[in-house]
Write a structure and sequence with these properties.
- By secondary structure, the protein is α+β, with helices and mostly antiparallel strands.
- The chain has helices at about 10-20, 25-35, 90-105; strands spanning about 1-5, 40-50, 50-65, 70-80, 110, 125, 130-135, 140-145, 155-160.
- It has a single domain (about 1-165), classed as Gcn5-related N-acetyltransferase (GNAT) (Aminopeptidase, 3-Layer(aba) Sandwich), CATH 3.40.630.
- Strands 1, 2, 3, 4, 5, 6, 7, 8 and 9 form a nine-stranded mixed sheet that branches.
- The longest helix has 15 residues, at about 90-105.
- The protein starts with a strand and ends in an 8-residue tail after the last strand.
């Protein structure tokens, strides 16, 4: 198993991974739309001997307040095909993805996800920094991780995703 950047020939398999992992097309549609619009910041696949079994995707996010605007990165989605879940593939994708985010010098990453899964990677409720999602979601499911220590100091505000998130 290797984790690598997506290639054009992976796109149909990535769509299938997202559809199967979530049991619907919304996440696959979002990834396709963001990619088509040039908004894919980081897109990695878990490749098991030539078969794409997992996918992680990041796109730009902005935290806006009255005083500041801070650009960072948002994780959405993270997907593994159902028969390969609970085999640490998602953890491998997270590790590689977060490393790439740091290498590309993103100051923070946000995620809207399961409150029992993402904290193991270092995510904390975004409300700890005074950050809210632009979406009406429970506090415990909207999380953030500083990729640079102190990056979110004094940066309370609203996290805004790419407009495509509202289109699919």
């Amino acid at each position: 198993m290797i984790v690598r950047p997506e290639k054009p020939e992976d796109i149909p398999a990535i769509r299938i991974v997202n559809e199967r992992a979530f049991g619907r097309t919304a996440e696959a549609d979002l990834v396709d739309t963001l990619r088509r619009n040039g908004k894919a910041a980081i897109s990695l696949v878990a490749d098991d001997d030539g078969r794409v079994v997992g996918h992680i995707f990041f796109s730009a996010v902005t935290i806006q307040s009255r005083e500041t605007e801070l650009m960072g990165i948002g994780l959405a989605p993270l997907a593994v095909i159902p028969e390969r879940q609970k085999q640490r593939i998602g953890s491998m994708l997270m590790g590689h993805g977060l490393r790439r985010c740091r290498e590309e010098d993103h100051p923070f990453v946000v995620v809207l996800g399961h409150p029992n899964y993402y904290p193991r990677f270092g995510f904390v409720p975004a409300s700890n920094f005074g950050i809210k999602s632009e979406y009406d979601v429970a506090d415990e499911v909207f999380m953030v991780m500083e990729l640079r220590e102190g990056a979110l100091t004094g940066c309370a505000g609203v996290a805004k995703y790419q407009p495509e998130f509202n289109e699919v």
